Amino acid sequence: MNRPIALVTGGASGMGLASVERLAQDGFRVVMVDRAEAALQREASRLSAHGLDVTPRLVDLTDEAAVRAMILALPPVTALVNNAGIFDERKFDDVANDDFRRMMEVNLIAAATLTQEVARRMPDQVGRVVNIASRAYLGAKNHAHYVASKAALVGYTRASAMELAPRGILVNAIAPGLIRTPLLAALTPERMAAQLALQPTGAAGEAQDVAHAVAFLASPRTRFITGQVLFVDGGKSLGGTTA
Ligand SMILES: NC(=O)c1ccc[n+]([C@@H]2O[C@H](COP(=O)([O-])OP(=O)(O)OC[C@H]3O[C@@H](n4cnc5c(N)ncnc54)[C@H](O)[C@@H]3O)[C@@H](O)[C@H]2O)c1
Fold first, then answer.
1. How confident is the chain (243 residues) per 10-residue block, as mean pLDDT?
2. What is the pLDDT of residue 241?
3. Active-site annotation holds for 146
4. 147 Cα–ligand 1 center, Å
5. How far apart are the CA of 243 and the centre of ligand 1, in A?
6. Which domains can be identified in the chain, with CATH numbers?
7. Which of 34, 49, 235, 240 has the most CB atoms around its CB within 10 Å?
8. What are the strands, taking DSSP E only, across 186-233?
9. CB environment 35-57: b (16+ within 10 A), e (fewer)
10. How far is CA 145 from CA 178, 188, 232, in A?
11. How far apart are the CA of 9 and the centre of ligand 1, in A?
12. CA 48, CA 22: separation in Å to the nearest integer?
């Protein structure tokens, strides 16, 4: 059987890894892309041992030529999940221009390069792009550079949704809230406690909660939703606490 191909960036960890597993279970042949070599090989072997159809690709997404060459060497991709992202905390006064550039390179430009290159050969009607933004794009303290990069990714989602809609290719974003993954190591225990206190549900989410939303938006059965942002955040985007 010819399985459709899904490509997930940042597939070696956190919600990218959970999405790789879920999409493979749903019948995709999944290309998992990451720059973390050891984790990539380890997780690809683990998933393959469970009978899942996954292929690791070691690429640093800030290397534009390598990204474009990788896509040209693959058969057409049906579902693209732009998940790889970087995060750190900086006080407002300490954010340097290089911090903005670093964030934009991974969180926006890599996703845009991939979308452009993949979309050229993506199959009409069933092609799907899912961009992992963040609830923080609405505004958050202590990471203005990250917030700006994720707001830019939402803007790019809306623009590419309009560009690709005539071909029936749908582009949506997911805005996760606080999700337990290795990325949260950037938060001090005090900041983590403060974040948890703001959760209406009182708890952080799990990577599988996001993978479930990815599977929904990547599915060919999802046919009339494009340019949207789906919050997977336990209600934090509602704007208040339950108190
Ligand atoms: N964890 C959260 O609470 C949270 C909340 C909102 C949004 N997000 C977003 O979700 C996405 C996934 O985050 P996560 O929490 O699973 O993080 P994670 O750190 O567990 O995984 C991110 C993966 O991306 C890879 N990566 C980063 N830069 C790369 C590059 N230049 N080239 C190739 N691979 C690269 C890393 O090696 C890592 O494996 C990110 O875009 C993040 O901004 C996370």
1. 94 98 98 98 98 98 98 98 97 98 98 98 98 97 97 99 98 98 90 90 95 98 98 91 50
2. 55
3. yes
4. 14
5. 31
6. 5-238 (3.40.50.720)
7. 34
8. 205-206, 229-232
9. bbeebbeebbeebeeeebbbebb
10. 18, 18, 22
11. 9
12. 13
- Expressed in angstroms and rounded, the spacing between residue 1 Cα and the centre of ligand 1 is 32
Give the separation between CA 218 and CA 223, rounded to whole angstroms: 10
The ligand 1 atom nearest the CA atom of 84: 24
Catalytic residue among 87, 137, 146, 231: 146
Ligand 1 site residues, Cβ closer than 6 angstroms: 10, 12-16, 34-36, 60-62, 83-87, 106, 132, 134, 176, 178-179, 181-184
Give the atom of ligand 1 at the shortest distance from the alpha carbon of 146.
43
Q: Which atom of ligand 1 is nearest to the CA of 207?
A: 16
Only one residue has tokens 């993506």, namely: 122
pLDDT recorded at residue 240: 66
Q: For the chain, how are helix, strand and coil distributed in percent, rounded to 5?
A: 50, 15, 35
Q: Look at residue 187 in the predicted model and tell me its pLDDT.
A: 87
